[in-house]
Design brief:
Length: 158
């Protein structure tokens, strides 16, 4: 499988007044918790219901810790933390700062390791991924450059 991307044009011009193009991931589906539980149970001695229950309980426990301003690290996966995203309504005095000036959201940072020289070695969930441009899939497959590792890449428009 490969991550499928497409070009999109920024709505904001750069300093030279040009609206540049950037890659954007094309999402082909959403996987439900039921499907994840079924697949995880295939790798373990747990039933699908046991896995779903464990995931539900994990979410409950993580929520409790995040609501207490704690970060949650799941080894091999990454770290979740609560962040406030300012809505652009700043105040002139620190004593006037209020939570209503921002929106709460959860930020996820995939786990990673560092080489001895300090460079990034791996990042969970994205290590080894191949990317293929949506509108050039067939050309790359026919040229022997199938980024899908030998499997046909599904058409997300179907």
């Amino acid at each position: 499988m490969a991550v499928i991307f497409e070009p999109y044009q920024s709505s904001l011009p750069n300093k030279q007044g040009k609206k540049l193009f950037y890659p954007r991931v094309v999402r082909t589906a959403n996987v439900s918790m039921a499907q994840i539980a079924k697949e995880v149970s295939a790798y373990s001695s747990l039933s699908t219901g046991d896995v779903k229950s464990a995931i539900d309980n994990l979410i409950t426990v993580m929520t409790t810790h995040l609501h207490a301003s704690e970060s949650v690290t799941l080894d091999g996966l990454g770290t979740f933390r609560m962040v406030m995203r300012a809505s652009g309504q700043g105040v002139e005095d620190a004593k006037d700062v209020a939570a209503s000036q921002a929106k709460l959201t959860v930020r996820f940072q995939p786990s990673s390791t560092r080489n001895s020289n300090g460079t990034m070695a791996t990042r969970a969930l994205v290590t080894g991924v191949k990317c293929v441009r949506f509108d050039r899939q067939e050309v790359e497959e026919n040229a022997g450059g199938n980024a899908g590792g030998g499997e046909p890449i599904p058409d997300p428009t179907v």
